[in-house]
Amino acid sequence: MNQVCIFSCRCWPEPVQSKTRNATTVLKHSSPTAARDVHLLSGAYNKMFYHISLEHEILLHPRYFGPQLMETVKQKLFTEVEGTCTGKYGFVIAVTAIDSIGDGLIQPNRGFVVYPVKYKAIVFRPFKGEVLDAVVTQVNKVGIFTEIGPLSCFISRHSIPPDMQFDPNATPPCYKNAEDEEIAQDDEIRLKIVGTRVDATDIFAIGTLMDDYLGAIASAS
């Protein structure tokens, strides 16, 4: 039996509008993960960010049918998509606008209703060759583990300049050279992406420090 459309969001007083969320609204309504990522990525290069149109289906239990139906659909959209990742589009940082909420389709033998939603979002998609800033999360003899917002990036020992040697006795352990320049946990560094691994729900990057102007970022005094 085909799905039957009986629950239309247009039945309720508030009409669907393509209302853009400003920066304050995005951070206010975003999940904690999305809000954190917007903050961490604010210093990255703009070419890694894209403003695109996406679609998502919201599945609602019958208990949500009522005057607040549209608001529930919107909030579930923010919760379900912000902070997620797809191999095709990258990390969804924040929903900026809801363009339309379609008529609900009843699921046979279940009573649940699916609402198709079209929206716009800021996504973060890294590509090979891009240079960006990262925060060091772990340092060991194998290499350096970093995070760029929601993206994890690993730098192999072989991609670290040879004058930077691992010092396991330092507190915390770090890579340092004869000039006492060092890279340790929580430091900010500038790296270059040399490759990415794309899964269905995640993206992982490989980086290098073997190029000009890469390495530790001097903190402001």
From TrEMBL:
<dbReference type="Pfam" id="PF00575">
    <property type="entry name" value="S1"/>
</dbReference>
<dbReference type="GO" id="GO:0003727">
    <property type="term" value="F:single-stranded RNA binding"/>
</dbReference>
<dbReference type="GO" id="GO:0031369">
    <property type="term" value="F:translation initiation factor binding"/>
</dbReference>
<feature type="domain" description="RNA polymerase Rpb7-like N-terminal">
    <location>
        <begin position="57"/>
        <end position="111"/>
    </location>
</feature>
<dbReference type="GO" id="GO:0060213">
    <property type="term" value="P:positive regulation of nuclear-transcribed mRNA poly(A) tail shortening"/>
</dbReference>
<dbReference type="InterPro" id="IPR012340">
    <property type="entry name" value="NA-bd_OB-fold"/>
</dbReference>
<keyword id="KW-0804">Transcription</keyword>
<dbReference type="GO" id="GO:0006367">
    <property type="term" value="P:transcription initiation at RNA polymerase II promoter"/>
</dbReference>
<dbReference type="GO" id="GO:0003697">
    <property type="term" value="F:single-stranded DNA binding"/>
</dbReference>
<dbReference type="InterPro" id="IPR045113">
    <property type="entry name" value="Rpb7-like"/>
</dbReference>
<keyword id="KW-0240">DNA-directed RNA polymerase</keyword>
<dbReference type="InterPro" id="IPR005576">
    <property type="entry name" value="Rpb7-like_N"/>
</dbReference>
<dbReference type="GO" id="GO:0045948">
    <property type="term" value="P:positive regulation of translational initiation"/>
</dbReference>
<protein>
    <recommendedName>
        <fullName>DNA-directed RNA polymerase II subunit RPB7</fullName>
    </recommendedName>
</protein>
<comment type="similarity">
    <text>Belongs to the eukaryotic RPB7/RPC8 RNA polymerase subunit family.</text>
</comment>
<dbReference type="GO" id="GO:0000932">
    <property type="term" value="C:P-body"/>
</dbReference>
<dbReference type="InterPro" id="IPR003029">
    <property type="entry name" value="S1_domain"/>
</dbReference>
<dbReference type="Pfam" id="PF03876">
    <property type="entry name" value="SHS2_Rpb7-N"/>
</dbReference>
<feature type="domain" description="S1 motif">
    <location>
        <begin position="126"/>
        <end position="203"/>
    </location>
</feature>
<dbReference type="InterPro" id="IPR036898">
    <property type="entry name" value="RNA_pol_Rpb7-like_N_sf"/>
</dbReference>
<keyword id="KW-0539">Nucleus</keyword>
<dbReference type="GO" id="GO:0005665">
    <property type="term" value="C:RNA polymerase II, core complex"/>
</dbReference>
